[in-house]
Amino acid sequence: MPFQQNWTWRALVAVAAAGTLYAGSAAFTPAAWAHVHASSDNAVRGGTALVTFQVPNESDKGAATTTLTIVLPDVASARTETMPGWTAKLDRDAASGTVHSVTWTAVAGGGIPVDQFALFRLSVQLPNTDTVSFPATQTYADGSVVKWDQPPLPGGGEPEHPVPMLTLATGPATAHEHHHASAPTEHGGQADNAARLLGGAAMIVAAVGICLVLIRRRT
């Protein structure tokens, strides 16, 4: 009996450890996933890049996202990717030839549903600066509007509605998105993978502990 109790205790410890690992893995999932992100694999100062905007639906009322406007730094060239279910319009200054912004509008009855996200891609000529901001305005079907235009807080903290940003490379080297911020496709993906690995390890530890208990009881 004492022997079985000892193994039972070990199994309980294993299960507790599994729970701790799982909770810890959840803590690694960045809250920033709920924000609008900008990312690019070829963001070079003064060069043309394909910038992807990841837009999640954060509505707590079940409303779909129906409009997205991205303000551009008066770029000389911009083109949108064909996106089924959406129309895109560039706000172009005919006199200077620069593009001020781009607005995507969902077709009637369309948009980004709750708990989903969409990717909006734009080929754009980037400015010759270290970083570039893309203030975004997200409009929902119920008329609510969220502006993603707040710069990083002093000390590097994240505001409630951070502006999507890119850090630009000075040469052909690959640059990654700084969303306020860091690329969701890279840093967010790594955090998500780490969470899954820790969660999987936790379940394995728990399963092994339970199996050992069952084996010892039978023997």
Automatic annotation (TrEMBL):
The chain crosses the membrane at residues 197-215. Residues 1-34 form the signal peptide. Residues 35-168 form the YncI copper-binding domain. InterPro entries: YcnI-copper_dom, YcnI-like_sf. Gene3D superfamilies: Uncharacterised protein YcnI-like PF07987, DUF1775 (2.60.40.2230). It holds the Pfam family DUF1775. It comes from the Bacteria. Keywords: Membrane, Signal, Transmembrane, Transmembrane helix. CDD domains: YcnI_like (cd08545). This is Uncharacterized protein YcnI.
